[in-house]
Amino acid sequence: MKTKDFSTGINYWPIDKAMYWWRNFSYQELRSDFSQIANYGMKLVRIFLLWEDFQRYPNLISPTALNHLRTTADLAAEYDLKIIVTFFCGHMSGVNWMPYWMLEETKAPSRFPLFSLGSVQEAKIRNFYHDPLAREAQILQIREVCLTLKKHPAIWAYDLGNEASNCVMPKCHEEAREWLRIMSSAIKSCDPNSLVTLGLHAEDLEEDRLLRPQDAGPFCDFLTMHAYPFYLSWVEEPLDVLVLPFLGMLTAWLGEKPVLMSEFGIPSQPTISPFYASPHKSRVPLFTESQGASFYKQALSLLQESDMLGAMAWCYGDYAPYLWDKAPLLQNPHERHFGLFRHDGSAKMAATVLHTYKSCGDQASEYKQLSSSFLEDWKRELYYEDPQGNLIKMYRQFRQENLL
């Protein structure tokens, strides 16, 4: 069954600012970008509160950043856009961004570069699921942000973190659930009608990071999933679009909550100069714009057919070349080219797909309704006994039932 209200949207960082947006805020730039997003038919915009910019000190939320956030919400309302506000950012584009006070003195190896105070640091991140300083700081951020935006017509939901398990993993499920309870309660106490979610990703299903959909479900109004088939070792084809509805349906089944596919997309080969795409520095392929358009077209229909709440593209635009020598684009060259719009603001073919896509009722899907009968053979309480093995077996079943 299709969702009656399937929404499309975008994950937003400005083309000319990337993760350096909040400290270099431009009203005119944001107005232009939101106008373009609205003109291309998208309704949801996910934004990220870079932790260091909003909370340079644990006991103070930046008044300037809050003013910029309020302006962002006001402009969204002007263009009839709805915003998902993501707290504690956190992990972003292959780099962990943290204020200095979130770093322990202990040096520790890290899978992802750690960026703080303008450079990459060698340090361990405080475990914000239980650390008293971090927890109080998070509650303060939630309170100040939610009071600033309370009853604002543009606010659709609050996200408790972007792929939080890439920063720190809780020590146990009880710790994760207690953190989720405290944070969601802090939001609801400020604005009881606000929606709460958590930015989960495929690795939360591939392994037990002690922050499962089952942990998040009781404290969230809906769950989200991020799906990029070309990142997944168990997927044979890098643009296997069936991975998207599968991961969404699996998340909904495990967490027993509806799911928004809040990230999907592909990095594309640049068609305007500079053409240096650094493929030799990245294991992630760059695809043609026509491949991207086909992927987006199939993904939107399949996600709607699998009863997702909506689908949000990663991301708004390719980043300006003068940002390429800065984090995270220096470390992860493919992240330069994920946009629906080129770095000169012109639209890629995938943006046109989103522009012309119409939700159910207006468009008959070219795909059959996706079957979820593969879930009948499994017990959710046993899934994490062997998450990777079970994931692969379940996907094989799903593909057999739903080959395009």
From TrEMBL:
**What's a BP term from Gene Ontology annotated to this protein?**
polysaccharide catabolic process
InterPro entries named among the record's database cross-references: GH, Glyco_hydro_5, MAN-like
EC number(s): the record gives 3.2.1.78
GO MF entries: hydrolase activity, hydrolyzing O-glycosyl compounds
Hydrolase found in the keyword field: yes
What does the sequence similarity comment in the record state about its family?
A: Belongs to the glycosyl hydrolase 5 (cellulase A) family.
Name it. mannan endo-1,4-beta-mannosidase
Organism annotation: Syntrophomonas wolfei subsp. wolfei (strain DSM 2245B / Goettingen)
